[in-house]
Write a structure and sequence with these properties.
The protein is mainly beta. The chain is 13% helix and 37% strand. It folds into 4 domains: 214 residues, Beta Barrel (Lipocalin), CATH 2.40.128; 100 residues, Lipocalin, CATH 2.40.128; 88 residues, no CATH class; 41 residues.
């Protein structure tokens, strides 16, 4: 699901707490001459008279320290209020001032970034950087011992002060006009952190990374200014090249960048289109239309090339090929499929390939063995016809076909037989002259055959997108 019910951008979303810019015992020196950034350990008195709180501050701004002049004339910075690099709180065995133990700052140095979201109920929320709302809730943390720590919120990076306290890391951006304060809880194995948004309604999990933040890669690869490509290039219908009766993979890309892949032998896979960048040793760059799952993992890619895009290849040198098809193509294929179904169940076997020497008789009706390989009928039998109906019709138009198959198909000894006696007429769509599309919306359109005849008329047909496929909602032979 998308996080559109939490639309406020993170910078203004209730995590921007007051007090972030206050001194609060940290003694952030604002007016005196700055010295070299340093890591400073200070003792901050808590409400308890028996224990102090140990806080290590990493800052891009100057901290108040005890400074002595060295022979080189540079500032020699030592921890304030103590002559050692670590201050142990009174009454605390581990020096943390709390029961959680001390998180050594240097074990957390490096880059951390958001890898998942969950609700306060524990329910996992799909996290997808291709969604602009999700990007606004991205958090990246760069902990640096040289006093150059930074917090990335959404797509913006800010210098920050960092305070370690037990298993908690408190981060404040150095921005007096609009400061951001986040508290990260470090896991016991120090392999992950969590932080809360919207007063705990959303919990983000961060993990350590060895490369640059993934949001930068995403924005670089997906930026129209950089690549000139976008998911909008692929909006529409796609199919593997083939002829009628061949089971082909087909694909629909929607206006929001979502994609539905329909596999030839059943099943679908859903995701979103993302633009990825690939750098080569010679310094050149290529781009890819990547199909990604909800966790942003790519499972198929097509090389970007000339636009507008009418063909897609899964490799720079070819590979899997998809061709763009129009709604006219979709309507004609669906009409021809329905004609094939009506003709096959007309009592004479239609134009199905049959072994008429192999028949069975039931209740006075004669059935012949089907040998037709189109749509894998010879191997799938009735299931092949049922799949065609599922892919072609919806609503009441689909429901009536169960009774038709009960009357016209028999499966016996692993073979499928079709009724060849009691033949009757059937309607058909004359698509040889094409169709005209009208009343088109994102989820529906009407198609009318251009050829008219006395038997079949113009055959206006209403199509709807049922979430997976374009299907007949209704049709008429006028």
């Amino acid at each position: 699901m998308k996080l559109r019910w939490i639309l406020p951008i993170l910078m203004a979303a209730g995590i921007c707490l007051t007090g972030c810019g206050e001194k609060r015992g940290m003694n952030v020196q604002q007016d005196e001459m700055p010295v070299s950034p340093a890591e400073t350990t200070m003792v901050r008195q808590t409400d308890s008279h028996s224990a102090a709180e140990t806080t290590t501050i990493l800052s891009g701004e100057t901290q108040e320290t005890a400074t002595g002049q060295t022979d080189t004339g540079k500032a020699d910075t030592t921890p304030a209020a103590t002559g050692t690099g670590e201050t142990k709180a009174e009454g605390s065995k581990d020096g943390s001032g709390s029961s959680g133990g001390t998180t050594a700052a240097n074990t957390l140095y490096g880059k951390w970034e958001t890898v998942s979201f969950s609700k306060d109920s524990g329910e996992r929320v799909s996290y997808d950087l291709s969604d602009s709302v999700h990007r606004s809730y991205y958090v990246g943390l760069d902990l640096n011992g040289s006093g150059q720590s930074a917090l990335t919120v959404g797509t913006e990076s800010h210098p920050a002060t960092v305070a370690f306290n037990g298993n908690a890391v408190e981060v404040c951006t150095v921005n007096r006009d609009n400061p951001v304060r986040l508290v990260f809880t470090v896991s016991a194995d120090k392999n992950s952190m969590t932080t809360e948004f919207l007063n705990g309604k959303i919990i983000a999990t961060l993990k350590r990374i060895q490369t640059d933040f993934s949001i930068k890669d995403f924005l670089t690869a997906g930026s129209p200014a950089e690549s000139g490509y976008s998911a909008a290039d692929l909006v529409g219908e796609w199919a593997l090249p083939g002829t009628f009766g061949t089971r082909n993979n087909t694909m629909t890309v929607r206006a929001d960048g979502s994609v539905i892949m329909r596999y030839a032998y059943g099943g679908t896979r859903r995701g979103k289109v993302r633009i990825d960048e690939e750098s080569h040793p010679d310094g050149s760059v290529s781009y890819w239309y990547s199909l990604c799952d909800d966790d942003n993992t790519a499972w198929l890619g097509f090389a970007c090339g000339e636009t507008p895009v009418n063909r897609l290849y899964s490799d720079q040198d070819g590979g899997i090929e998809f061709v763009r098809i129009s709604l006219e193509d979709v309507a004609i294929e669906k009409m021809n499929t329905l004609t094939f179904l009506m003709r096959s169940m007309s009592g004479g076997g239609g134009n199905l390939e049959l072994d008429r020497s192999c028949t069975v008789t039931v209740d006075g009706k004669t059935y012949a063995k089907i040998t037709d390989a189109r749509f894998s009928i010879n191997s799938l039998g009735r299931a092949a016809f049922e799949r065609l109906v599922e892919e072609t019709l919806s609503g009441t138009e689909k429901e009536q076909w169960g009774a038709v198959f009960d009357d016209c198909l028999i499966e016996q000894d692993g073979q499928t037989y079709v009724l060849i006696s009691q033949a009757h007429g059937y309607y058909s769509f004359n698509t040889e002259s094409g169709v005209t599309i009208t009343q088109q919306t994102e989820n529906s359109f009407t198609a009318v055959t251009n050829a008219h005849d006395a038997m079949n008329g113009s055959s206006p047909t209403n199509f709807v997108f049922d979430g997976t496929n374009w299907t007949f909602e209704s049709y008429d032979f006028q």
